[in-house]
Structure formats: structure tokens, C-alpha cells
Design brief:
By secondary structure, this protein is α+β, with helices and mostly antiparallel strands. 34% of the residues lie in helices and 28% in strands. Strand 2 and strand 3 form a beta hairpin. It is globular, with a radius of gyration of 11 Å. The mean pLDDT is 92.
Length: 64
């Protein structure tokens, strides 16, 4: 099984915006992106690598 890419917030945000997601709102250190009825929540920590579960969520939602 191939390993997941290591993404930080900026890289994941770029993928979502290119796929047509838009920033709906910010709550604390989390940014919520929406496209149609799909929603993705990203923690906003500039230099930290995102948790693999969050990366998997982003990749799954981009596939559909």
C-alpha cells in the first residue's frame, strides 16, 4: 500500500481551492471549506504537517 503524501496546511488548501472548494468560515484555528454539499475542515497551523487522517479525508473528497 502506498504511503500518504506529507502535506502542510498551505498545500492541502491549494488542492482544495483548485478543485473548486471555497472558504466558508473560520472558527478558531480551523478553516472550513465547502463545495456543493461536501465539507472539509482543515486545522490552520502554517508549518506543521497535517495528521494522516486529515490528509486521507482531503484526498478522498477530491476523488469524488
Amino acid at each position: 500500500m502506498p504511503s500518504l503524501p506529507r502535506l502542510n496546511f498551505k498545500e492541502a488548501e491549494k488542492l482544495l481551492l483548485e478543485a473548486g472548494f471555497r472558504l466558508a468560515r473560520t472558527k478558531g484555528s480551523h478553516k472550513i471549506y465547502i463545495k456543493d454539499k461536501k465539507r472539509v475542515i482543515l486545522p490552520f497551523h502554517k508549518s506543521k504537517i497535517l495528521h494522516p487522517k486529515i490528509i486521507l479525508q482531503v484526498l478522498k473528497i477530491l476523488k469524488t
